[in-house]
């Protein structure tokens, strides 16, 4: 999702200030875009381009809050 709207396609444009919500392997990631990279660079540089607002992962052995028992 981009700003709570479902992305129509993988190539949708994002800009600084957009909030991305991604679900991957039963985890939710929430990232706020801070800037666009001028080039393809190292991971350390890429980490400065977003703010991670994701909730902490559930402790091992504990089911996610929406899990069915």
Overview of the structural elements:
The chain has one helix and three strands; from the N terminus they run ββαβ. It is mainly beta. The protein has one domain. The chain has a three-stranded antiparallel beta sheet with strand order 1-2-3, with no helix packed on it. Strand 1 and strand 2 form a beta hairpin. The chain is globular.
Q: What is the number of independent domains?
A: 1
Strand content: 15-25%
The secondary structure category is mainly beta
What is the rounded Rg? 15 Å
Number of strands: 3
Main beta sheet, described?
Answer: 3 strands, antiparallel
Compute the separation of the termini in Å.
28 Å
What is the averaged pLDDT score?
A: 87
Overall geometry comes to globular
Q: Tell me the series of helices and strands, N- to C-terminal.
A: EEHE
Helix % is: under 10%
Strand order of the largest sheet: 1-2-3
State the low-pLDDT regions, or none: none
- Note the total helix count: 1
Task: Please sum up the structure shown.
The protein is mainly beta and 69 residues long. Helix content is 6%, strand content 23%.
List keywords for this structure.
single chain, 69 residues, mainly beta, three-stranded antiparallel β-sheet, 1 helix, 3 strands
